[in-house]
Amino acid sequence: MAIGDFLTEENNESKEKVCVLGATVAKEIFGSAYDAYDGTVYIDGRPYIVSGVLSEMGTVASGISPDTAIYVPYETGIKYITGTNISPTITVIAEDVNQVNTVMTDVESTLKESYPNTTFTISDAGSKMEAASASNETLTLLLISMAVIVFIVGGIGIMNVLFVSIKERTNEIGILKALGCSRKDILLEFLLEASFTSLVGAVLGVLVALGITPFVQLFNVRVSLSVQGAVLSLLFGVLTGSIFGFYPAYKASRLIPVEALNQE
Questions:
Q1: Same domain? 175 vs 206
Q2: 110 FRET partner, CA 20 to 30 A, in 78, 142, 161, 175?
Q3: Distance (Å, rounded) from C-alpha 209 to C-alpha 206?
Q4: Checking DSSP bridges between strand 40-43 and strand 46-53, what pairing results, if any?
């Protein structure tokens, strides 16, 4: 406690309208813990006397922070706020993080002893974090798999387009070679063409993503856009075109001028 006393059994049995404030709530409403003590807070239009203010604790589990909470006696809450149709939740903070399993066992034993015919679900924040981490790893694997599929399918498409382009422009390649263009020049020409084609596709993809984001958010799906992501998408497109366009460009650079000129 930063000041005052926590709720007592007498407060609960008498269903008194008293409360204990978290540190952040006290500062937001009254300015300080000292000013909050013995003040009045209105909950659902009913006045509650502040019997104490908790010290600042920070987040303890699943985003829950005692600093932003207001505590009232259990029976008072049932009578004036929630009614009887509730599922109580108890948050326990272990003094030593290495003793969490022991604390969980003690809590479970105490609850079973006090309420022998009741079913309890006990979990710790560490397990939830591990589950969330496993879900993130699975999602990352799926995204990587999708990226690989897009890379292969898109690359094969670019390669086929470039092969067709080379086939249709074989005479042009022969003329360029006859005029003195080197293999390197021909290679770079078609390689840049492949890279530019995939870059255009990447730009269109980024624009489509920006366009559909507002519609996706209408379904309460969280979307986080960033300049870094857009730049990486463009680089990925150029890389795809460069890799899959290299072989067709190489084949074009190896054409024999006389054969290329006579190609119909």
A1: yes
A2: 78
A3: 5
A4: antiparallel
| Residues 8 and 86 both lie in one domain | yes
- Tell me which residue range forms the domain holding 106: 94-122
253 half-sphere exposure, CB direction, 13 A CA radius? 17
DSSP classification of residue 209: H
34 plus 131 within the same structural domain: no
- 225 vs 58, 121, 172, 207, CA distance in Å? 29, 38, 44, 12
Tens digit of each residue's pLDDT (9 = 90 or more) over 70-124: 999 999 999 988 888 877 788 887 888 788 888 888 998 888 888 888 888 888 8
Classify the phi-psi angles of 89: left when phi > 0, otherwise alpha if psi is within -120 to 50, otherwise beta.
Answer: beta
**DSSP code at position 31:** S
What pLDDT score does 70 carry? Answer: 93
Q: How many CB atoms lie within 10 A of CB 175?
A: 14
- Cα 176 from chain centroid (whole Å): 52
Domain count, the chain: 3
Helices (H), the chain: 9-13, 23-30, 33-36, 74-77, 100-114, 125-168, 170-178, 183-217, 227-253, 257-262
Residues 80 and 145 grouped into a single domain: no
Beta carbons of 205 and 150 less than 8 angstroms apart: no
Give the DSSP H/E element, type plus range, for residue 20. Answer: strand 18-21
Residues 247 and 140 placed together within one structural domain of the fold: yes
Q: Are 73 and 12 in contact (CB under 8 A)?
A: yes
